[in-house]
Write a structure and sequence with these properties.
Strand order of the largest sheet: 2-1-3-4-5
Radius of gyration: 14 Å
Number of helices: 5
């Protein structure tokens, strides 16, 4: 898939992240794409649902499974504005997601503090990082700056 397509779908994930920001949630957004079509979208709803597991990735995957009647998504790409946390990596692993595309790194809570031998995704999963990274990081920084 071209960088242009990755940017388009990341912009859609950013719209979800903005919805989270507007709802006073940590601004993370996600979309699930198959055959160049969005089949699911979500944003963090931890505060709304009073559920620490209500991350954008988990909610988007659950929606995609439900809409397809499937428990695996090897042909899907998950776009998420921020590097997935360990919990979300587990969900992504079990869903056998084909590709993950994320925007901003998360030095504190992201999966990257694992060693190279601890690849947290399915062995066939492809990973692309840094798509619209500055835009994704700006939204997160703005949110946390407003909390201080």
């Amino acid at each position: 898939m071209s960088t242009l397509n990755h940017e388009y779908f990341m912009q859609q994930a950013l719209k979800e992240a903005q919805a989270a920001f507007d709802a006073d949630e940590v601004p993370v957004g996600a979309v699930v794409v198959m055959n160049n079509q969005i089949i699911a979208r979500a944003h963090n709803q931890v505060e709304l649902l009073n559920d620490s597991t209500a991350h954008a990735e988990i909610l988007a995957l659950t929606s995609a499974y439900s809409s397809l009647g499937a428990k695996y998504l090897p042909e899907a790409t998950l776009y998420v504005t921020v590097e997935p946390c360990i919990m979300c990596c587990g969900a992504i692993y079990w869903g056998k997601i084909g590709s993950i595309v994320y925007g901003a790194s998360d030095e504190k809570n992201g999966y990257r503090h694992l060693t190279k031998e601890q690849w947290p995704f399915h062995p066939k999963t492809e990973l692309i990082a840094g798509i619209l990274e500055a835009d994704c990081a700006f939204l997160m920084k703005s949110f946390f700056r407003s909390k201080r």
